[in-house]
Amino acid sequence: MGLRHGARAGLLRVVRPSTWRQWARVANFLGYDGAELREASVGAGARISPTVSVRNGRRVSVGAGAQIGASCSLWAGDSTGRIVIGDHALFAPDVFVTASNYDFDAVPGPVMAAPKREADVTIGANTWLGARVVVLPGVSIGDGSVVAAGSVVTKDLPPGVLAAGVPARVIRKRGEQR
Ligand SMILES: CC(C)(COP(=O)(O)OP(=O)(O)OC[C@H]1O[C@@H](n2cnc3c(N)ncnc32)[C@H](O)[C@@H]1OP(=O)(O)O)[C@@H](O)C(=O)NCCC(=O)NCCS
Hints:
Layout: H1 2-15, H2 17-39, E1 41-42, E2 47-48, E3 53-55, E4 60-62, E5 67-68, E6 73-75, E7 83-85, E8 90-91, E9 96-98, E10 100-102, E11 116-118, E12 121-123, E13 128-129, E14 134-135, E15 140-141, E16 146-147, E17 152-153, E18 161-164, E19 169-173
Parallel strand pairs: 1-4, 2-5, 3-6, 4-7, 5-8, 6-9, 7-12, 8-13, 9-14, 12-15, 13-16, 14-17, 16-18
Antiparallel strand pairs: 10-11, 18-19
The structure holds coenzyme A.
């Protein structure tokens, strides 16, 4: 009796339209971003979370052994802006990298109608970007640098430093005593 009731409830869940809508959303997300990711250049042994969001994947390059965490976004530009990530870089969840800005000063109306300004982003080898770091167009982060959680990187960072804050500022060299 209990078993039959359970099976019936399970069957009802499967045929419910909301279940199918949910699966359609998941399939759409995975299909779109999966296709973009397949266009990217990915080095040997790199691990990329299936929930990563990629735009213009042919202008995205992820180095060997790098790890890109859950819900990170790698949004390269529509025409030129590339995102280049070095070997063994580690991205915590929710890191957002973009190689493109709207030139919102160029038009008075909707920002979406504005042209885009694109600039390459380079993130060095052996870097660690903490959770929710944002990296803006044109920025270069040197090899081995660490960016603290929640920072917004608006300008270049040299190699081998810890940087934090909004905007991100160098706090100290990596390996130095605190
Ligand atoms: C950067 C981090 C590793 C701390 O490094 P640390 O050397 O121990 O740094 P400290 O805690 O000694 O802090 C040094 C200074 O930076 C500041 N700071 C540290 N993290 C910061 C952050 N996320 N944003 C702003 N300032 C920060 C501290 O307040 C401190 O400032 P003070 O000298 O004025 O007091 C840590 O703060 C961090 O962001 N970790 C990322 C965690 C994460 O995303 N994990 C996901 C796993 S992949």
